[in-house]
Amino acid sequence: MEFSSKLLENAVREMSQLPGIGKRTALRLVLHLLRQPSEQTERLVLALHHLRNDVKYCRNCHNISDTELCEICASPKRDESLVCVVEDIRDVMAIENTSQYQGLYHVLGGKISPLDGVGPNNLNISTLIDKVKAGKVREVIFALSSTMEGDTTNFYIYKQIAPYGVATSTIARGIAVGDELEYADEITLGRSILHRIPFENSLKG
Ligand SMILES: [Zn+2]
Fold it and tell me: Where would I find the Toprim domain in this sequence (predicted)?
């Protein structure tokens, strides 16, 4: 792609670093921003700047939060003896949308994926094991997407926490293998949380 302006070229190059954004889409977005009032672009830049600099992660569940303890963990209405293990905030949002779950979450920040260089130590796993060791958790619910990485991660955590006698379950899927949690419709996802099955049963399939 030949550019008549270095400024334009730089903006397009940075924009095209985003996932799913090719050079052509990047150019369209950048030209769109140029046509908008400059305050619009400044608001975008400022929002990203604040996000980058001020973002916090809940000290209990590791979810993205504006406060040290997120709203879910801080709520007296939630059952802290139930912990639902998810990959990231999108899963928390999807499950919260179902209004069927009253426990807390534990956000791993990814899945074990040796090919991508992601091992257990790169994820928020040790804090989950600490919670179970502390004896405050009655049940750990696995809600990772049913991909090979998701299954590997579930099994790794299961092995680590099983000695502590905590109940483990996995959400019953009405969704095809490999489907990401965030794309499941609310009713299906809500049902699958209510009708979760013991984790051991999921290993026999
Ligand atoms: Zn939290």
Answer: 81-176
Give residue 190's pLDDT band: very low, low, confident or very high (50, 70, 90): confident
Residues 70 and 152 in one domain: yes
Secondary structure of 31-84 in HEC code, one letter for each residue: HHHHHCCHHHHHHHHHHHHHHHHHCEECCCCCCEECCCCCHHHHCCCCEEEEEE
Q: Is the Cβ–Cβ distance between 107 and 62 less than 8 Å?
A: yes
Q: Measured in angstroms, how far is the CA atom of residue 187 from the centroid of ligand 1?
A: 24
CA 132 – ligand 1 centroid, Å: 16
Q: What is the pLDDT of residues 151-174, one digit of tens each?
A: 999 999 999 999 999 999 998 765
Domain that holds residue 79: 58-203
102: in domain: yes
Does residue 41 sit in the same domain as residue 72?
A: no
CA–centroid distance, residue 74 to ligand 1 (Å): 7
Per-residue pLDDT of 86-104, as tens digits, reads: 999 999 999 999 999 999 9
